Amino acid sequence: DSGVTQTPKHLITATGQRVTLRCSPRSGDLSVYWYQQSLDQGLQFLIQYYNGEERAKGNILERFSAQQFPDLHSELNLSSLELGDSALYFCASSASGTDSYGYTFGSGTRLTVV
Amino acid sequence: AQSVTQPDIHITVSEGASLELRCNYSYGATPYLFWYVQSPGQGLQLLLKYFSGDTLVQGIKGFEAEFKRSQSSFNLRKPSVHWSDAAEYFCAVGARSTDKLIFGTGTRLQVFP
């Protein structure tokens, strides 16, 4: 157990729907990162939050949004889902907000859009 | 542009053989370098990291990596591979001023008994 908890582990939904992925960071970590892993794109950085504030944004679609709550858990919202959104979505956390000391990854949420 | 290249998509070795996985990076600033391992259906586990100092870094599970600035490389090595090392390995690079990591496309390691 890495200490980063992601729920649900698997999600199957239809095109056009909206889903919410949840992440609880490791105890004490203030930064949360979301990554998408697909066969054709590899591991792509989506977005980072640090202590409730958006810190960095990557290749995140406008249909996707995220937030980090006061208890530091984070949610990634995916809407108007398309077949191409099927992927593994990873959350990671780290203790520092300004230096890369290495993340701790969760086990991911596998999203299948049908 | 910042990038990480793992030129070997798939490597097959015999158990007990030595292993070297290649990683080359392109990064404007002084990089932070990482190797992660991903077993099927699992998240990514940090094997080792390099920030500064000794260019040969030791990690978990008997892995080591050497930073060579002149070659922009950070190759991962293990002297004797175990069947349990079969997994996908990712090299990643980041900067001091941001936490975003850029990952390579991964190398899938297969180990034969």
Structure, described:
The complex is a heterodimer of chains A (114) and B (113). Chain A has 114 residues and is mainly beta. Chain A is 0% helix and 53% strand. In chain A, the strands form 2 sheets. In chain A, strands 2, 4, 5, 6, 9, 10 and 11 form a 7-stranded mixed β-sheet that branches. Chain A starts with a strand and ends with a strand. Chain B is mainly β and 113 residues long. Chain B has no helices and 12 strands. In chain B, a hairpin with a 2-residue loop joins strand 10 (87-95) and strand 11 (98-103). Chain B is globular, with a radius of gyration of 13 Å.
Oligomeric composition of the shown chains: heterodimer
Helix/sheet category of chain A: mainly beta
* Shape designation of chain A: globular
Into which percentage range does the β-strand content of chain B fall? over 45%
Got a strand count of chain B?
Answer: 12
Keywords:
heterodimer, A: 114 residues, mainly beta, 7-stranded mixed β-sheet, 4-stranded antiparallel β-sheet, 0% helix, B: 113 residues, 6-stranded mixed β-sheet, 56% strand, globular
